[in-house]
């Protein structure tokens, strides 16, 4: 039985493990964190990714964990409402598109793989490829040998660094940083996304249906230098400096930040690589082609990539190199289409001047009354829909369960 080590237990990793088990492989998932990472932020599942969820039989579970967001409300520095819009339109969703918290999706996928070995609180230290496998040494556990190794370990992929070189070669910064963390429920309104645009900076707070707390989101131009991505205290100080003097709820949100258990801050960057595999080592999801949060398609790319990778490997039994080549051939046009969304979306997420903010809020107020409103909405959502469906999923080979 073909053994596969997967690094990363967020979304792409467990999804890949599910499909590999279905095809008779024996996957092991190693995760640096001591347990599944709960919480996180809202993520979208659209187009081809929703079809993958359907083929896994998980649509019902995803729908039961829908965020239930109803509206986005734009406010000024005093909290006065500037404009409002439907939550689905704000998120670029239409039809059956789903929105779910990342932690909920990760839990659904992990629970769907009870026959998969998960190793928490450990990480890959070295990879030594051979003609018929990869010897892996871990930071804590004993050495093991696998037929294949797949990095599904995110933007700062450890597997990518070990097998493909320093991440500076593969990351393409988009000029902005993003921060997300949990804050008390009092900061938000249930099922409402509160957005405060300011020149060059955007702050948001949302509370999903039934959630006991809220999430704060900050977008701002990337600073010079900055703390290393695992230096949490340094990154909190960086955010506090970037939003010093800001209005609305920002001072209180920054006070709450210091006690946030799940603080995240990083650059909005894309992963651009000429190849996603070398020998018997491969990458999937953000580790291979992270489109950045600005695209809104990172989760969908991870789900589709996991399906295509597993299907391609299953269709080439005994020849993993051929399977990996087929995976890249099928996925690359889809990846490129979705990565192109990021810069377009980012222009609307962070506005550069007060005049641009006034124009945007004016258009949002006028939208319900404009002739041809539906045509305007389709123009907004069409690029996202086109990118989300820019792949024909391969048929699933006959399952070979052990």
UniProtKB/TrEMBL annotation:
Domain of life: Bacteria
Pfam families listed in its UniProt record: FAD_binding_3
Gene Ontology MF terms: FAD binding
Domain FAD-binding: 2-338
InterPro entries, per database record: FAD-bd, FAD/NAD-bd_sf, FAD_aromatic-hydroxylase
Stated name of the protein: 2-polyprenyl-6-methoxyphenol hydroxylase-like FAD-dependent oxidoreductase
Source species: Micromonospora kangleipakensis
């Amino acid at each position: 039985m073909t053994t596969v080590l997967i690094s990363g237990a967020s979304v792409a990793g467990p999804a890949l493990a599910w499909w590999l088990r279905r095809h008779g492989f024996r996957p092991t998932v190693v995760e640096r964190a001591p347990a599944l990472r709960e919480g996180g932020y809202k993520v979208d599942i659209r187009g081809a990714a929703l079809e993958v969820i359907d083929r896994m039989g998980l649509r019902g579970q995803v729908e039961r964990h829908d965020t239930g967001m109803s509206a986005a409300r734009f406010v000024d520095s005093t909290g006065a409402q500037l404009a409002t819009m439907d939550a689905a339109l704000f998120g670029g969703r239409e039809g059956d598109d789903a929105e779910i918290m990342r932690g909920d999706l990760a839990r659904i996928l992990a629970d769907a793989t009870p026959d998969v070995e998960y190793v928490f609180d450990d990480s890959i230290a070295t990879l030594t490829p051979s003609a018929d496998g990869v010897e892996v040494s871990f930071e804590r556990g004993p050495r093991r040998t696998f037929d294949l190794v797949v990095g599904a370990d995110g933007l700062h992929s450890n597997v990518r660094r070990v097998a493909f070189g320093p991440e500076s070669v593969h990351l393409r910064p988009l000029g902005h940083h993003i921060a997300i963390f949990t804050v008390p429920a009092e900061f938000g309104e249930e099922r409402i996304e509160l957005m405060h645009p300011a020149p060059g900076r955007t702050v948001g707070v949302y509370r999903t249906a039934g959630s006991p707390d809220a999430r704060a989101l900050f977008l701002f131009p990337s600073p010079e230098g900055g703390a290393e991505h695992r230096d949490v205290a340094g990154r909190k100080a960086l955010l506090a400096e970037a939003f010093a003097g800001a209005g609305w709820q920002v001072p209180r949100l920054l006070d709450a930040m210091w006690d946030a258990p799940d603080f995240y801050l990083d650059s909005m960057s894309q992963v651009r690589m000429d190849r996603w595999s070398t020998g018997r080592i491969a990458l999937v999801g953000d580790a291979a082609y992270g489109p950045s949060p600005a695209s809104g398609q990172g989760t969908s790319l991870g789900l589709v990539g996991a399906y295509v990778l597993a299907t391609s490997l299953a269709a080439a039994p005994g020849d993993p190199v051929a399977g990996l080549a087929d995976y890249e051939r099928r996925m690359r046009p889809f990846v490129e289409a979705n990565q192109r969304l990021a810069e377009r979306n980012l222009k609307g997420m962070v506005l550069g001047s007060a005049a641009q903010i006034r124009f945007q809020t004016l258009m949002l107020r006028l939208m319900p009354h404009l002739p041809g409103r539906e045509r305007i909405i389709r123009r907004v959502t069409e690029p996202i829909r086109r990118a989300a469906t820019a792949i024909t999923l391969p048929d699933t080979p006959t399952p070979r369960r052990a």
